[in-house]
Amino acid sequence: YYRPPSTWNAFSAAVAGSATDAGSASAGDGDAGPAISADAQQRAESQTQKDVGAARLPSAPRESHTPSPETTPRAAPSNSLNGAPIPTFTLAEHDSSDDGGTDEDTLPPPSFPSLNSAQRASIQPTHAPVVAPPKPSLMAPPPKPTLMAPPARPTPSSLMAPPPRIVASNLRPLPTALPSVRVPITGPLPNRGPLPNRGPPLSNGSLGPPPTAGLTAKTPNARGKVLLSPGHSPLDWASLQKSGMNLSGVPSLIRVTPSILKYNNGRKGKPAWSSYHGKVYNITPYLPFHPGGEGELRRAAGKDGGKLFMEVHPWVNWDNMLGECVVGIMVSEEQARDRGGSLEDME
Ligand code: HEM
């Protein structure tokens, strides 16, 4: 049983006194009671010392550190860790009464990061005086835009010289009206074949002579197309054919002999007739509409143009293009003599 220390001595004396009196106390009580009580007293005192020691700071000296075989061995307090001193702190070291500090000032520093770590060293201590960051200096106001000087007025000396006056002596004589309207055709007739400079490369790798060598332009523009005068487009020709005008130049279809065809060659004011596959067409109205140029078409005037036609554009439907220009059919001189003039007479 546990008894308070104040009653312990009286209880022990009573037990000791009765030890000799075997009849007044039981054997159990008389033998065990004093022994247990003495051991319990020692333990109680030891426990009291432990409680007092636990309440002290770890660095406080202890009365005895002798390990007891009955208790868990305690580690001896040390002020160093692997040889490095462990920083200690006490609440009394920091006196916050004079600066009116807050609770934050009185609190110990956090355990992380470690006190002697570089991470903590990089952190500005909370109790360090806070230095206000320098106020950003105001930027200098932008320079006021300076107005550009007005452009200098041109002086008579800086102006370009006026163009020379046009006088009659500077002018070239005007060409005649009719040729100026026509599309100029220079050079030989085109054969629509491969261009000389488009052939296969020569053995030395070059593309051959320049395009102009030995060749003149067949058409006036760079794309090889004939520039038709305004109002002479293919659509304009189609509209003219549908207009109902007599484009053949004859009141009715006639028999055309080779001599007659040859006569109407388009020169000296005569009409330009041309035969294609036995039919004779008056190509005179079509000359300014011909996409290949008037000169090209004139090559077939007064004769059979079928061969030239097929060499250049066999895909063109000439009968449809010149349907309103039909003059008649080709007949031999003999046939014309035998059968008379008009086709109606032949039937
Ligand atoms: C009355 C008969 C003829 C008609 C209706 C006719 C009609 C045409 C047409 C529609 C074109 C444009 C073809 C295209 O762009 O694809 C053309 C182009 C041309 N024609 Fe004729 N043609 C005739 C006779 C001839 C003759 C007899 C020659 C030559 C002797 C000739 C030489 C050309 C040439 C060089 C072109 C230019 C081709 C080009 O621009 O690439 N045409 N012709």
Automatic annotation (TrEMBL):
<protein>
    <recommendedName>
        <fullName>Cytochrome b5 heme-binding domain-containing protein</fullName>
    </recommendedName>
</protein>
<dbReference type="GO" id="GO:0004128">
    <property type="term" value="F:cytochrome-b5 reductase activity, acting on NAD(P)H"/>
</dbReference>
<dbReference type="InterPro" id="IPR001199">
    <property type="entry name" value="Cyt_B5-like_heme/steroid-bd"/>
</dbReference>
<dbReference type="GO" id="GO:0005737">
    <property type="term" value="C:cytoplasm"/>
</dbReference>
<dbReference type="Pfam" id="PF00173">
    <property type="entry name" value="Cyt-b5"/>
</dbReference>
<keyword id="KW-0479">Metal-binding</keyword>
<feature type="compositionally biased region" description="Pro residues">
    <location>
        <begin position="131"/>
        <end position="145"/>
    </location>
</feature>
<feature type="domain" description="Cytochrome b5 heme-binding">
    <location>
        <begin position="253"/>
        <end position="331"/>
    </location>
</feature>
<keyword id="KW-0349">Heme</keyword>
<dbReference type="GO" id="GO:0020037">
    <property type="term" value="F:heme binding"/>
</dbReference>
<comment type="similarity">
    <text>Belongs to the cytochrome b5 family.</text>
</comment>
<keyword id="KW-0732">Signal</keyword>
<feature type="compositionally biased region" description="Low complexity">
    <location>
        <begin position="20"/>
        <end position="40"/>
    </location>
</feature>
<feature type="compositionally biased region" description="Polar residues">
    <location>
        <begin position="113"/>
        <end position="125"/>
    </location>
</feature>
<dbReference type="InterPro" id="IPR036400">
    <property type="entry name" value="Cyt_B5-like_heme/steroid_sf"/>
</dbReference>
<feature type="region of interest" description="Disordered">
    <location>
        <begin position="182"/>
        <end position="219"/>
    </location>
</feature>
<dbReference type="InterPro" id="IPR051872">
    <property type="entry name" value="Cytochrome_b5/Flavoprotein_Rdt"/>
</dbReference>
<keyword id="KW-0408">Iron</keyword>
<dbReference type="GO" id="GO:0046872">
    <property type="term" value="F:metal ion binding"/>
</dbReference>
<dbReference type="InterPro" id="IPR018506">
    <property type="entry name" value="Cyt_B5_heme-BS"/>
</dbReference>
<feature type="region of interest" description="Disordered">
    <location>
        <begin position="20"/>
        <end position="156"/>
    </location>
</feature>
<feature type="compositionally biased region" description="Polar residues">
    <location>
        <begin position="66"/>
        <end position="82"/>
    </location>
</feature>
